[in-house]
Specification:
By secondary structure, the chain is α/β, with parallel strands linked by helices. It has 14 helices and 11 strands.
């Protein structure tokens, strides 16, 4: 017998995973979806045929459009989705970070418009549905008006094509893009999610990433003389005999100037990467080019620096997904970088990731 719940129980039994009631409840939902997909062979529901439905084929057990898991940071949402995805009974499937997915959508939109397509979302949704009958999105969040305005139509097309969606998020669907510009244009997407997906709040355990965090080594705080000297010494050790040099990356005709780099590591200040109009694509390119990133002068954040904080969140997401080694010199510990105000809630996930990225468990999986 297969499926995520059975895998979870086996790992609890052998001590790999610690049992948690909130995770077990979510996995029961995922197992139900897995079982229903298995009965259908992972295929989407066929469309009705014939006048008033006459002449259409008998339909087997309908497949739900999917599941939306939300809850606090570090409670295992991504791990549970991975258990589901690993042996999901669907031949064509895709697991992707939501940032990466939307980056690809915008690239396809530009290509379709260059070809003169007047309504590009339809063809794009059709191509995605043809390539993947199951889409698993990690860390669904919406902070960009451009994303907000296309999501409703895009997902309508995916659902109509029978695509099954599993998503994780820190927020309930109704709280996505909260207080965003022209949010009323985003409301249809929220309604689509609530109508098409089972929505489950995961009341999980404490943040495991925080529990496992190492209090030194690659994260230096506060930004004082002693920690700056340690940060500088670690940079010199990474450079070895190589001489660091200014570098430049190019993406879609736009240049990204970097103060110091070697072939495998880059050193930049917070202002270099987060006070300039950079986006997910820029940070993904940075992460793919340099396995190790030294980031210094990370300040305390507040609503007055909301744009810089948003870019910092996106940067950390890109580095985390790329499994980069991050060495940080910051004004405070991760959980104290954005202590209060509008935007502090969204930053909790980033603080959790910063703590995980300095943990022995995370670092032990990186290349030497």
């Amino acid at each position: 017998m297969g499926g995520p719940l059975h895998t979870y129980r086996a790992r609890v039994a052998d001590g790999t995973i610690t049992s948690d009631p909130g995770q077990a409840m979510a996995l029961e939902k995922l197992q139900l979806l897995w079982d229903r997909l298995a009965k259908r062979g992972g295929a989407p529901a066929p469309r009705k045929r014939g006048l008033f439905g006459f002449g259409r084929k008998a339909e087997p057990v309908p497949v739900p459009n999917g599941l939306y898991l939300y809850g606090g940071v570090g409670i295992g949402k991504s791990m549970m989705m991975d258990l589901f995805y690993a042996d999901a009974p669907v031949e064509r499937k895709r697991r992707v970070h939501f940032h990466d997915f939307m980056q690809g959508i915008h690239a396809e939109l530009r290509a379709e418009r260059a070809r003169g397509t007047t309504d590009p979302l339809g063809p794009i949704a059709a191509r995605i549905a043809a390539a993947a009958r199951l889409l698993c999105f990690d860390e669904m969040q919406v902070t960009d008006i451009a994303d907000a305005m296309i999501l409703a139509r895009l997902f309508d097309g995916l659902f109509e094509a029978g695509v099954v969606v599993v998503a994780t998020s820190n927020r309930h669907p109704a709280d996505l893009y909260k207080n965003g510009l022209n949010r009323h244009l985003f409301v249809p997407f929220i309604e689509t999610i609530l109508e098409r997906l089972d929505v489950l709040h995961v009341d999980g355990p404490p943040d495991y990433r925080k529990i496992e965090a190492d209090r030194g080594g690659v994260y230096f705080a506060p930004d004082d003389a002693e920690n700056r000297a340690a940060f500088d010494a670690l940079w010199r050790s990474y450079c070895g005999a190589a001489t660091p040099f200014p570098a430049m990356l190019t993406l879609q005709g736009r240049s990204i100037d970097l103060p110091l780099a070697t072939k495998t590591a880059v050193r930049a200040g917070f202002a270099d990467l987060c006070a300039r109009p950079l986006g997910p694509g820029d940070y993904l390119l940075l992460a793919k080019t340099y396995p190790t990133v030294f980031l210094e002068d990370v300040p305390l954040l507040a609503p007055a620096k909301r744009d810089q904080a948003r870019r910092f969140v996106t940067l950390i997401d890109a580095l985390y997904e790329a499994r980069s080694r991050l060495v940080t010199l910051a004004a405070a510990e991760p959980e104290a970088l954005y202590p209060e105000g509008d935007g502090a809630f969204e930053f909790e996930r980033t603080a959790s990731r910063l703590m995980e990225m300095r943990s022995e468990k995370y670092l032990s999986k990186l290349a030497a």
